[in-house]
Amino acid sequence: MTTRAVAARRRGRPGLDLATVLERSVGLFIERGFDGASMEDLARHLGISKSAIYHHVSGKDALLGLALDRALSGLEEAAFEVRASQVSPGARLELLVRRSVDVLVERLPYVTLLLRVHGNSDVEREALARRRQIDRLAAGLVREAVESGELRADADPTVTARLVFGMVNSLTEWLHPGSGYTADQLADAVVATALDGLRA
C-alpha cells in the first residue's frame, strides 16, 4: 500500500465522513430531542465509536452548531436575495415566502431541527438570534407592503409575518422526502392560502 493510500485510510479511520455523521445525527436529534440524545446514543445510532465522532467534531454542541448553520445559511441567503431584489415590497414578501419554502424542502431535516431548538445553550441562542433577524425582515416587508397599498391596511406586520411564515414552517410537521410535492407546488399553495387573502 502506498504512503498516500495509508494516509488517506488514516484520515478516513472513523468509516463515516463528516457529512454523513451530521446527517444521521440530525435524524436522531429530531427523533429524541437534542438534550435527549447522548454521545453514547449517537455512537450507537451511527454504528461507530465516540472517539470516531470526536475525530470529526469537538462534541454534541458542535454537531448541533453545524446542523443549525446549514439551515440558517440557506435562509439567510434567501433573505439576502430578497433584500437585493429591485421589486415592490409585496413582490419581495412573496419572494421571501417562495425562497423560504425552497430552503425548507432542500434542507428539510436541518430546518426541522432549527424550529425545535429552545435556546437552552449558547449554540441554540445564537441560532435563535440569527433567526430573529430573518423574522424582522419578514415583518418589515409586510409593513412596507401595507404602506405601499399592496396589502390590506388592517394587516398587523408582526402578526401577519408570524402567521404567513408559521404556515411555511408547518411544512416540517408533515412533509417528508418522497411526498411527491415540489417546492414550487408548496410555495404556490402557501401564497394562495396566506397571501392572496391579504392583498389590497
Radius of gyration: 20 Å
- How far apart lie the N and C ends? 71 Å
Main sheet record:
none
**Could you tell me the mean pLDDT?**
91
Percent helix? 55-70%
The percent range for strand residues is: under 5%
> What is the molecular shape?
elongated
| Count of DSSP strands | 0
Low-confidence stretches: 1-14
Helix/strand-derived category reads mainly alpha
Taken in chain order, the helices and strands follow as: HHHHHHHHHH
Query: How many helices in DSSP terms?
Result: 10
Write the layout of secondary structure elements.
Blueprint: H1 3-11, H2 18-32, H3 39-46, H4 50-54, H5 60-84, H6 89-106, H7 108-114, H8 122-147, H9 157-169, H10 183-195
Helix pairs in contact: 2-5, 2-7, 5-6, 5-7, 5-8, 6-7, 6-8, 6-9, 6-10, 8-9, 9-10
